[in-house]
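tool_call: predict_structure(chain=1)
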Amino acid sequence: MKKTIVKEIIEWILCFLIAVILALIVRYYIGTPTEVRQTSMFPTLHEGERLWLNRWQRTTNKMPERGDIITFEAPSKKYISSEEVDLENPVAVYDYEPQGFFNKFLYYVLEINKTSYIKRVIGLPGEYVEIKNGAVYINNEKLEEDYLQDGVITDMKQSSSQSGQFTGFVVPENCVFCLGDNRSGSNDCRSFGCIPLEKIEGKVEFRFWPLSKFGGI
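tool_result:
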């Protein structure tokens, strides 16, 4: 009798461990739900909305397309001053690396104590990006952005107290230039530079909450 109970307990524990491992594999390599916690993508996305994040592009190391909404690890340095900016190498600074297997597991897999940003891909590798005349220009051609609210002006000001420095440069290889749709309230690549492909966490595929907005974005 006791052996039967012990066997059942072991089986339940094994089933639980297998389920957890499968869930972590799906979360890291395939996809996971996420919640909007910022206002930088307003009016496209609102705080509290829940989205499905496709991880497969990260797993296959695929470059996102212009217009994709992605999440990425927040840079270590959120703002580069005019004295520090290097438009010959306009890449965001990432100098934090958790030490040890357990800490790396917590940070990269469970994403504990990790900050992520959600933005829209604007510039792709090899493209010349310039912000002028209230708009974004790619290779000297004005980018049409139908997803922005009427009257939105794109300049280097991201708040009443902060202006970015990254404009007038070529997007480096294996990097993307991203902006929030809420141009006057988004801390984005204008302030910290382009995002390396390996720091992109996934692409937003669709919104599943609230149900009244269920569907692709």
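agent: Residues 19 and 57 are 24 Å apart (CA to CA). Proceeding to next step.
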